[in-house]
């Protein structure tokens, strides 16, 4: 038996007679980053709800380490524009958190300068860091991150993924992350689980990107996520600029586009 933080076995979730998730097997261990990818409607959000205990599977089991501490980062936060809520007050909604602890968490994610700013005034990238700081304040053994780079530009996305890796290294926590940017998470994840209501394939990112099931789901469907490899004499960096041919493949040779169908 592995030292998993959480383990899903044969998890099926049914709505209105349709399987939204079908016999899912998934585990996350301490220090491991597992990334869920899949098109819209693949069941990623439903799976996250099952992991968090917000949804009970129709069948199968979800096992969690006893007294498991989970830090959750949602895709985005909707705050009424008229609500007088500073970043500090938002972070202090976590029980027992004082200003010093909030500031320390913000420093860890590189967002300490916004501590007294209204939540509504911070940029998209800053807000994602604030949400990550909030998750860290729970001293998590498992971080669950739902599209953590939502609303962040490409350069910021790469840095945010690198930050998540540094936090994993520093705290030794497991990370379950939802993303559709395989080209960006290639170098920052240990395992990819390709989901389309069932697990199509799973493994190391480079293995998954060439798996026939992945290619069938993503590479050949123009309405879905297109992953392709360059085979000419130059490459592109994360900003689309041409770079020398010896640039590492994890950042230069694999490109993707966001999901386009519902």
UniProtKB/TrEMBL annotation:
Residues 6-221 form the ABC transporter domain. The keyword Transport applies. InterPro entries: AAA+_ATPase (IPR003593), ABC_transporter-like_ATP-bd (IPR003439), ABC_transporter-like_CS (IPR017871), Metal_Ion_Import_ABC (IPR050153), P-loop_NTPase (IPR027417). It holds the Pfam family ABC_tran. GO terms for biological process: response to zinc ion; zinc ion transport. GO terms for molecular function: ATP binding; ATP hydrolysis activity. Keywords: ATP-binding, Cell membrane, Ion transport, Membrane, Nucleotide-binding, Translocase, Transport, Zinc, Zinc transport. Gene3D superfamilies: P-loop containing nucleotide triphosphate hydrolases (3.40.50.300). The keyword Cell membrane applies. CDD domains: ABC_Metallic_Cations. It comes from the Bacteria. PROSITE patterns: ABC_TRANSPORTER_1 (PS00211), ABC_TRANSPORTER_2 (PS50893). This is Zinc ABC transporter ATP-binding protein ZnuC. The lineage of its organism: Bacteria, Pseudomonadati, Pseudomonadota, Gammaproteobacteria, Pseudomonadales.
């Amino acid at each position: 038996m592995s030292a998993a933080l959480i383990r899903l076995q044969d998890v099926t979730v049914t709505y209105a007679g349709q399987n939204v998730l079908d016999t899912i097997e998934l585990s996350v261990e301490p220090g491991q980053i597992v990334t869920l990818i899949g098109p819209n409607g693949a069941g990623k959000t439903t799976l996250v709800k099952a992991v968090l205990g917000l949804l009970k599977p129709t069948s199968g089991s979800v096992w969690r380490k006893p007294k498991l501490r989970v830090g959750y980062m949602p895709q985005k936060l909707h705050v009424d524009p008229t609500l007088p809520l500073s970043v500090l007050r938002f972070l202090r909604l976590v029980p027992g958190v004082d200003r010093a602890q909030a500031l320390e968490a913000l420093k860890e994610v590189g967002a300490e300068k916004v501590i007294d700013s209204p939540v509504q005034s911070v940029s998209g990238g800053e807000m994602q860091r604030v949400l990550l700081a909030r998750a860290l304040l729970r001293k998590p053994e498992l971080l669950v991150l739902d599209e953590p780079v939502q609303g962040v530009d490409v350069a910021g996305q790469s840095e945010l993924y690198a930050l998540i890796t540094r936090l994993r290294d520093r705290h030794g926590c497991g990370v379950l992350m939802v993303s559709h940017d395989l080209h960006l998470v290639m170098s920052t994840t240990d395992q990819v689980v390709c989901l389309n209501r069932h697990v199509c394939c799973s493994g190391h990112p480079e293995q998954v990107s060439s798996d026939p099931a992945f290619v069938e789901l993503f590479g050949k469907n123009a309405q879905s996520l297109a992953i392709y490899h360059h085979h000419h004499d130059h490459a592109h960096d994360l900003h689309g600029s041409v770079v020398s041919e010896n640039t590492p493949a994890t950042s230069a040779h694999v490109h993707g586009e966001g999901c386009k169908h519902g």
